[in-house]
């Protein structure tokens, strides 16, 4: 691939146009949609895929990573994630770590609420410490 191809000045592109711009078959684009969460074309009223300029730019990056740099799908996904293009996936360790941290914080909060209730309890029941 010699230079970067200039995108036509449009807001939305149909799958056939995108396939021509990116240089892959439409079924490859549909497969990449299933593998990369950052590629989410809208559907037209007729149910056709309508890609934004950002989708097309992401697809060009995906093709470059897969074909020119020989990344695997997982490697390309990780590279796009590092660049802030691809959102973290369920397989991302940081997502699991964040989930565990949230659970731990909720447990701590519950314990603190219970302790605060316990501290208020002697006043309400007339118990002495």
Can you put this structure into words, describing what you see?
This protein has 129 residues and is mostly helical. Helices cover 60% and strands 7% of the residues. The protein contains 5 helices and 3 strands. Strand 2 (42-43) and strand 3 form a beta hairpin. Helix 3 (53-68) packs across helix 4.
In short:
The chain is mostly helical and 129 residues long. The protein contains 5 helices and 3 strands; from the N terminus they run E-H-H-E-E-H-H-H. Strands 1-3-2 form a 3-stranded antiparallel beta sheet.
List keywords for this structure.
129 residues, elongated, three-stranded antiparallel beta sheet
Amino- and carboxy-terminal Cα gap: 79 Å
**What spatial form do the alpha-carbon principal axes imply?**
elongated
Supply Rg.
25 Å
Oligomer: single chain
Number of helices: 5
Strand coverage percent: 5-15%
Strand order of the largest sheet: 1-3-2
What are the low-pLDDT stretches, counting only 5+ consecutive residues below 50?
A: none
Major sheet characteristics: 3 strands, antiparallel
Order of H and E elements: EHHEEHHH
Helix content: 55-70%
- Briefly note the structural class of the backbone: mainly alpha
Record field, number of beta strands: 3
Helix and strand topology:
Layout: E1 12-14, H1 15-22, H2 26-35, E2 42-43, E3 49-52, H3 53-68, H4 73-82, H5 93-125
Antiparallel strand pairs: 1-3, 2-3
Helix pairs in contact: 3-4
């Amino acid at each position: 691939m010699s230079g970067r191809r200039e995108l036509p000045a449009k807001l939305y592109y149909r799958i056939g146009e995108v396939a021509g711009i990116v240089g892959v078959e439409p079924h490859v684009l549909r497969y990449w949609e299933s593998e990369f969460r950052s590629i989410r074309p809208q559907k037209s009223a007729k149910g056709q895929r309508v890609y934004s300029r950002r989708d097309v730019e992401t697809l060009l990056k995906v093709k470059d990573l897969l074909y020119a740099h020989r990344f695997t799908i997982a490697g390309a996904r990780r590279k796009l994630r590092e660049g802030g293009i691809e959102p973290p996936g369920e397989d991302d360790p940081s997502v699991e770590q964040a989930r565990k941290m949230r659970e731990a914080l909720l447990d701590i909060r519950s314990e603190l609420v219970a302790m605060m209730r316990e501290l208020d309890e002697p006043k309400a029941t007339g118990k002495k410490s």
